[in-house]
User: What shape does this take?
Amino acid sequence: MAIFNKSTHCLYCNLKMNLFRFLEDDQIKFINKTRYEVRFHKGEIMFKQGGPFTHIACLTSGMAKIYIEDPEKKNLILKIVKPTEIIGGPGFNVDSRHHFSVAAMEESTACFIDINAFTELVKTNTTFAMEFIKQINTTTINLYNKMMSLTHKQMHGRIADTLLYLSDSIYESTEFETNLSRQDVADLSAMTKESAIRILKEFKEDGIIEFNTSSFHILNLETLRKISKTG
Amino acid sequence: MAIFNKSTHCLYCNLKMNLFRFLEDDQIKFINKTRYEVRFHKGEIMFKQGGPFTHIACLTSGMAKIYIEDPEKKNLILKIVKPTEIIGGPGFNVDSRHHFSVAAMEESTACFIDINAFTELVKTNTTFAMEFIKQINTTTINLYNKMMSLTHKQMHGRIADTLLYLSDSIYESTEFETNLSRQDVADLSAMTKESAIRILKEFKEDGIIEFNTSSFHILNLETLRKISKTG
DNA sequence: CGCGAGCTTGACGTTGTTCAACTAGAGTGG
DNA sequence: CCACTCTAGTTGAACAACGTCAAGCTCGCG
Assistant: This one.
């Protein structure tokens, strides 16, 4: 189960994410009052799609996946989050519900901030509000790219895109350990697990990547980018 | 070509969209100063993807389509806009560029508001800012739904979804004239024109819809919704 | 009356999913 | 320590979904 905690004061937190750097000291103190820390084990749910949107979370350690569930049990992973990213969602100020689920991919901790306190800050601190908008918009731009990839490219291009996403944006290395399952790779690429496995195998046979159950190594970044381009 | 104009003062504009209802009179006057009206003919481009994001537009008459272009010339139509919807985009406060194109689907007029003036309002009027965020988030929620439809449903489900979108949200009737081409219907559904035509024909043969070149009539809304659900 | 753009159709090949079987490794209890 | 089970990964064959290509069609417009 998730474990509660409240360690260092926000004021002295060196994990302070970009957004919170725009707060005044007394505003930091203000959110510190309602904030609490939660520790999650691998696989545990932080936010549940459809559930009440009562808090914003800030991942302080570990890693989590954000995904949309559908009735048929076919999930779509929108993105992976790393420290110290803020986790909110489009339910903010709309219907106060979560429109995606978030699950810890490994032992993780997150700070939970009351949504009302957060709203208060958006309303009182203009710079904070503008940065918040900036972050939402950046997310939307990424979403556009993902949407074009998933709807207009075929499987090789889509798998190339998720490999590039993982190496460029998440693990920041062409060689990485991961505990994404094959199903997760498939859910990132909008295809079945079997198809994902087949494409990965092809890439391996072509000498583009090397991998085993839990680690990947991109050997030929250039052809991978070319495959991403040609779709 | 687009025609410039500046008719009634914003203060007395009865087309004022939701967002602008939260402005004070002097703020309305403020944006009225920099605003101008543009008239577009069918097919003309209002915003061009990649181009500079210097203005926010508010569609005051007509209809327009918002779409993402890709290098291979395969477009994805994100949504149709009607009066008096605001047309901005995720480039706001990020890179000041457009991340989609907008084209008039028929004779249309739009008010263009300088982005700096708009930004000023977001910064000074908290209610306005919150409503702006609300609108962005609502758009994102719709985007999630579209994304799930396009990536997880097969063609029948996707065509059903665009038909339902058109009748529920755009034309607000099960019977409507449109000047969306077959290619547009395909671009709304992420498939080829030929496939779209084939599915539409099937639906006609099954007595679910009736249509000719430029008009559609949904005869059996229930089965259409069922097809949307089952994918 | 002829031209061109959008629409329609069919045949065909490719892409991607489904289903079923098999494998490997990690825990679990006797 | 050895079966046993469970889960994730893998493979192949059959099939369905979808795109491509090429041809023919329709209709408004010059």
